Structure formats: structure tokens, C-alpha cells
Amino acid sequence: MLHDHLNAQCQCTPTGPGLALTAPQGVFLPRRTQAGLVEATRAVGRTLRRLRPRSSAVDNAGLFNSFDYHITPDGPKLIEINVNAGGLFLQPAIAASVASAPAGCLTRIGATHPADPVETILKAWSRHAGSTPLRRVAILDEDPETQPLHCEMQAARHALGRAGIACDILDIGQLAFDGCGLRGPSGPVDMVYNRWTDFTWATPQSRTLRHAHETGAAFVAPNPQVWQAYADKALLVQLAADPDRPAAILDAEAVTHARADALWTGRKSLVFKPLRGFASRGVYRGDKLSRRKWQDILDGGYLAQALAPPGQRILTTAAGARAFKTDIRVWTHGDTPLYMAARLFSGQVTGLSGEAEGFAPILWVEDEKGGPDACHC
């Protein structure tokens, strides 16, 4: 297939040098996979709505969810769903860098253009507040300057500023409730774009945020109701057990002592994920698992999910040709697809910190057939 050949050989679709958290090359996929990812996301969204009915307000506060997939011979397979998923505000610059690159294979390949995330925020605000203007947004996290995606928060602040909206990147401790509304150091806050990973607001630090949300003092997106509707990992088990589950759903079950022997025996075809984990923390592939770690998993509140291997992209690095793993992130508003991009990583789980790792544009191949003359690297 042409896309496989290009992923193994093509080095002539560079992204802009120096772009933060960006892989140096795009990832090739057949055009039909684009439609497959959109339909898979919509189908999973419909099933989630049936399993856990939710209000339109919850969907509206889903900024920005992500449905993360591995592409297999049987189509896209959903690995997990995240709320407040990072990376979307980097995509316009990545797409622009590809558009300005030497033509190379792009004369035969189609690249997508990212949705405008500011437009999505403004639509969500309008649904929440009607004609009331959005004056100030707080992008909120714990110690945001130390976060791996801090540069993307800066990109979001810049994009909102260009649209005439004041924006501050704040630590969770910088918010206060003054009896009239939510405030940050620069003044009243109308909306919180919440990147804080205390998803259920269970910690004392989240008290102000919870109060602002529950009293309607500010529009907080996302919030715990969004997490419960989309990203609670127990939903992966519920989805797998549903008799009408979409084709993108992988087998999954809760790890219990009653199932310990069977799961250990079949561990090489499984991935183990903590029910309260995020960002690949605490995730273990079964074929890498030790007996000692297995006991921790049994006692630690885990699920077992069928292994769907990631894709592969070969890149030329300073050390020579290297194979990188790939997954596909579909950002959504609620469960409505907005944009999709690939992520390249080289470890056991997704990471964006190593050489040549990062977000990568997807380059859609129109023709499934191809050979050595398909790319002139």
C-alpha cells in the first residue's frame, strides 16, 4: 500500500524546524481512514450517550475532548478518551509549516486544515451565555509553567488575544471567589479553559473552581460532569460489554482477583491501565510485566484492554533511520470531531519529549497503490 511505503521511506514532507512538540515529518494514511475515524468517533459518542445520558450543557463544556486511536488492519481502534486534551492550539502552525514545505509528495497527497479552536470556544460560550460578550478567559493548570504543554497554552493565549479576548494562564491557586464572581490577578474571569487534571475536583485546591461552577459564577470547560460522561476509564469496560458496541471498541474488563489467573495467562495480548490514571501514567503492556508489578496491578484498581499495536513511521535522525510508533488523536467538541493529527513516540507509551517525537500532521493518500516511484526523497 502506498501509505505504508511512504511511512517507511518518505522524508520530503518536513514540518517547520523548531516548532515545539512537533515531529519533523508527517504521517501518511489512506483517505478512507479519515472517514473511518470520523464515523468511529460519532458512533462511540452515540453509544456513550446511551450508556450515560448527558445534557447538552455537558457536551458544550467538552473543550477539548480527544478520542485517541491506533490504526489496525480492521480499522481504527479506540485506545482511550481524554478531556482537556492538549495539542489542538499547536496544529494551525504545524499545518501552515507543511503547506509551505517543498512540494515533494504533497503534489499527490492531501493535507487537512485544522479547525479554529478559538471559534469553537466562542460557540461554546455563546451557547452558555447567549449574547453576553466573552471578556476574559483563564487557562488553568497546576504550576502551568512546568507543564509539558505550556507552550500550547501560550499559543491559546495568543490566539484568544488576536480575537480580542483577554486571557491569562493561571495556577489553580490564583483563582478567587469574591462573592460576585470568579477573579484572577488581572480581574474578573468569565470562562475557565480547564487543564487541571484533578478531574473530579476532589482536592482542596479545586474548592474555588467547584464553587464557581456550581454557582454559575463562571463557565468552566471541561468540568467533572464532562469527565464522567467521556473520560472515566470505567466507561471503556462498559463500552466493551455493550452488545451493540461500535467496531472501534476493544475488548476490556476490570482486573479482579477472581480473573487474575486468566488475565496473567493472556497478559501478552493485553494492556493494563489504572482506572484513575491519565497521560499514560501507570500503563503497562502485559508482555513487559513482571510478577512483582502484577501484584500491584491486582491491588491497584486497573482495567485490562486488548492490545492494538500502534502504527509505525520511519524517520531519519542524527543516529540514522529509526522506527517511531504512531497514534491518532481526534479532538472533539463533545463528541463532534473537530480535527485530527498523529503523535509520534518511541517509548512503551505515548511521550513527546524525545528526539523527533511530537505531533505530526496527517497526510491523506488518495491512491492505495504505490511503489518505489511514489516518493522522490
What does this structure look like?
The protein is of the alpha+beta class and 377 residues long. It folds into 2 domains: 2-232 and 309-374, no CATH class; 251-306, Dna Ligase, domain 1, CATH 3.30.1490. It contains 11 helices and 20 strands. The chain has helices at 2-9, 31-51, 56-60, 91-99, 117-129, 150-162, 207-215, 224-231, 234-241, 260-265, 291-299; strands at 27-30, 65-72, 75-82, 109-111, 136-141, 166-171, 176-177, 182-184, 187-188, 191-194, 219-221, 252-254, 270-274, 284-285, 302-306, 311-317, 320-333, 336-345, 358-360, 362-365. Strands 2, 3, 16, 17, 18 and 19 form a 6-stranded antiparallel β-sheet that branches. A 4-stranded parallel β-sheet has the order 6-5-10-11, with helices on both faces. It has a 4-stranded antiparallel β-sheet with strand order 12-15-13-14. β10 (191-194), α7 and β11 form a beta-alpha-beta unit. The longest helix is centred in the N-terminal third of the chain and has 21 residues, at 31-51. The mean pLDDT is 91.
What labels would you give this structure?
29% helix, 2 domains, 11 helices, Dna Ligase, domain 1, alpha+beta, four-stranded parallel beta sheet, six-stranded antiparallel beta sheet, 377 residues
What is the element layout, followed by pairings?
Layout: H1 2-9, E1 27-30, H2 31-51, H3 56-60, E2 65-72, E3 75-82, H4 91-99, E4 109-111, H5 117-129, E5 136-141, H6 150-162, E6 166-171, E7 176-177, E8 182-184, E9 187-188, E10 191-194, H7 207-215, E11 219-221, H8 224-231, H9 234-241, E12 252-254, H10 260-265, E13 270-274, E14 284-285, H11 291-299, E15 302-306, E16 311-317, E17 320-333, E18 336-345, E19 358-360, E20 362-365
Parallel strand pairs: 1-20, 5-6, 5-10, 10-11
Antiparallel strand pairs: 2-3, 2-17, 4-20, 7-8, 8-9, 12-15, 13-14, 13-15, 16-17, 17-18, 18-19
